[in-house]
Amino acid sequence: MRIGEVAEKAGVSVRALRYYEEQGLLQAGRGPGGQRHYPDTAVGRVRLIQQLYAAGLPSRVVRKVLPCVDSGEEKAPPALLDQMAAERVRVDQRITDLLAVRDRLDDVIAIARDPDSDCSHVE
Please, what is the angle between helix 59-71 and helix 78-113, to 10°? Predict the structure, then answer.
C-alpha cells in the first residue's frame, strides 16, 4: 500500500506516518522511484501506535513494546515488563479520573435539564 492509502485507512496524516517511520515504529519498503510501500499489516500497526500514544505512552516506550507485539512472544525483558506495568497503573489512574469527570458532567447535565434549576437557561 502507498502512504496515502495507509494514512486514509488508519485515519492519520501522511506526516504522522513519516514520523512513525523516523521513530522506528513503522517500516516501509521503497519502490524504484523511492515511493514508500507498506505491508497490509501497516494499518493495524498504525492504529495500535495511535492507541498507545492516546494512552500517554511516549514513542521511546512504544518503540520498546512493539517488538513484543510483533514477535507474539510473551517473554520480554524484566525492565520492560516493569515499565509496562507502571504505564498500566498510570493508564488505570487516567481511566479513573476520566470516569469521575464523566460522572460530574452527567450531574451538570441533569441539573441543567431540570426545569426547576437555576441553570436551565444554559445552552
Answer: 110
